[in-house]
Every structure is written in structure tokens, then in C-alpha cells.
Design goal:
Number of helices: 9
Strand content: 15-25%
Low-confidence stretches: 299-305
Number of strands: 12
Mean pLDDT: 88
Length: 305
């Protein structure tokens, strides 16, 4: 009989690209992973991996095996969820991967509520913007608080369920006082120096796409994913920043925020988990807490979820 742990190692090696990377994510030594994969190869009787440049890829037999393994993993999750549903209790541990820009106004309030409602539950929170949905597919995390920008296609992997939390507009952030909350046409920023994320990021792509739609290529002398750095540059009058509303503390001194009119830029925040036919009480409780926190964290100018 095939060992399910070895099947998971095989899938992880392919997803990570190497035995060394897989071993690191599994908290094992490369030698231990190699031994387990060698045992799996002996069980099957043919090679499951082949070199692919500096990485490894599945052979045809390996691909078929991983496809069946995915169904096995899904069946195990269904069994676990069915037992949890019958017990009707929230579990003891869960791992959440969340965007750093959502921690203050969504994640922290949600975790506070969960601690009050389900004191037996321990949530490990990974604040990261790197490949969260891949980690969800691999089982490294249980729930993801992610984002997608409106101009980009939906790239949710097969086997993942995503639940919309909030439509989160980007705001123009400057150190210049403006009368009221006057919306700023995006084309007005053609003469501004912008502080923006790298163009390879979803947010950077969204800003570049919107600016080009508005008829100009932006001047971006300050490129950083660090929102605190973007706010500092804006506060100093060195740059104009475009930052999601939920990532800005309304009490931040020395800055002014304005909505964008004409070619507005939005990101959709969502909670995601692995698909199951039977709801898991633990992930259900966490997603409900995130949804409530997102709703309460909206400002009057936010659209309803």
C-alpha cells in the first residue's frame, strides 16, 4: 500500500522545485526526503521525477500518481471535516496566511474576536504576500486572506474556494492639504513623483495599467512594497503614494488621503480555503471572523461587501 506521507513529499518536491526546498518547508533534512522518495519509487517500480534544468519535474507516471494523490488528500480532508461536523466543535489549531496590509484593520480584530469566542483555538498567523494560495494547496496553511486586482484574471487554483470580504479602493496619499475629500482624477498624477510597489507585483501592475488607461506613464522614482515607507515618503512631501484604504491608519498624522475618480483602482480582499463538500467548523469560524472584521473595518466611503 502506498504511504500517504510519501505522496505528500512527492507533491511538495514538485511544487517547491527541489528536494532541498521541499525539505526546508517540511522541516526535514534533504536526506530524509530523498530516502522517502526512493522508497516510494521502489513501491511504484518506475522513476517518478526527472531533472528539468535546475529543478525537477514529474515523469508521466509521477503525474498520474500525484493526480490520484490529490483525490486521496481530498478524501482525508472530507473524513476529518465530517468528524468535526458531527462533534460540532471548533478545533485546537489553525494556520492563517494574510497580507501584511490587512493585519491592523482585519486580522487583529478577527483574532481578538476568535480568542474570545473560541479560547481553545490557537491561530498561527503568517503575514506574507508570497504565494499564499500555493501554500494553501500544499496544506502548509489552512486559510488565506488574499487579494486580487480587478484588471487581472481570476487565478484561483483548482480545489480552492474563495469568499469575498471587501472591495478595497486605493487612495491618493499626499502631504498636501486638500479641501475636503475631493476625488482626484488619476490623470492629475501625471506630473507627480509616485511611490509604488514594483511593477512585477499585482498592485504595481494595477497602478501601471490604470495610469496608462488614463493616458500617461507614471513617474516612479520610489519603488517599494513597504507601505510604511510609502507613507513616510508621502508625509515628507517627496512623493505621492497610492495605497489600499485598509492599509492606512485613519489617525496617521501628516498625510492627506483622497479617493480616485476616473480609472479608480480597486483590490478585492478574499478569504480562501481548500474545497470540501463538508464544512469544517474551524475554518468556517475563522472566515466568519474575518468577514465580520472586514465589515466593521470599513470607512464610510467603502462600498458594502
Amino acid at each position: 500500500m502506498l504511504d500517504i506521507r510519501r505522496l505528500h513529499m512527492l507533491k511538495t518536491v514538485v511544487a517547491r522545485g527541489s528536494i532541498a526546498a521541499a525539505a526546508q518547508s517540511l522541516a526535514l533534512s534533504p536526506g530524509a526526503v530523498s530516502q522517502q522518495l526512493a522508497a516510494l519509487r521502489r513501491e511504484v517500480g518506475v522513476d517518478l521525477l526527472r531533472p528539468d534544468g535546475r529543478t525537477v519535474a514529474l515523469t508521466e507516471v509521477g503525474r498520474v500518481l500525484v493526480e490520484h494523490a490529490d483525490r486521496i488528500f481530498a478524501a482525508v480532508r472530507e473524513a476529518e471535516n465530517a468528524v468535526a461536523a458531527v462533534k460540532g466543535t471548533v478545533g485546537a489549531a489553525l494556520t492563517l496566511a494574510a497580507l501584511p496590509s490587512t493585519v491592523a484593520r482585519i486580522v487583529a480584530p478577527a483574532l481578538t474576536a476568535l480568542a474570545s469566542q473560541h479560547p481553545q483555538l490557537t491561530v498561527t498567523c503568517l503575514a506574507t504576500d508570497q504565494a499564499q494560495l500555493r501554500e494553501l494547496s500544499l496544506g502548509t496553511v489552512d486559510v488565506v486572506l488574499g487579494q486580487r486586482y480587478h484588471h487581472l484574471p481570476d487565478a484561483t487554483p483548482r480545489g480552492i474556494d474563495a469568499y469575498r470580504l471587501l472591495d478595497d479602493p486605493l487612495l491618493v496619499v499626499t502631504a498636501t492639504d486638500r479641501p475636503g475629500e475631493r476625488p482626484v482624477p488619476l490623470r492629475e498624477l501625471a506630473t507627480h513623483s509616485l511611490a509604488v510597489p514594483p511593477p512585477a507585483t499585482d498592485c504595481g501592475q494595477a497602478i501601471l495599467h490604470a495610469c496608462r488607461q488614463a493616458g500617461f506613464t507614471p513617474s516612479t522614482p520610489y519603488v517599494t512594497t513597504d507601505i510604511a515607507a510609502q507613507l513616510t515618503l508621502a508625509r515628507a512631501g517627496l512623493a505621492t503614494a497610492l495605497i489600499p484604504r485598509t492599509a492606512i491608519d485613519p489617525a496617521t498624522p501628516g498625510i492627506h488621503t483622497s479617493p480616485i475618480e476616473e480609472h479608480p483602482i480597486h483590490r478585492e480582499l478574499f478569504a480562501a480555503t481548500r474545497h470540501t463538500d463538508t464544512a469544517d467548523p474551524t475554518t468556517t469560524a475563522v472566515i466568519a471572523a474575518l468577514r465580520t472584521a472586514a465589515h466593521h473595518g470599513r470607512t464610510p466611503l467603502d462600498p458594502p461587501a
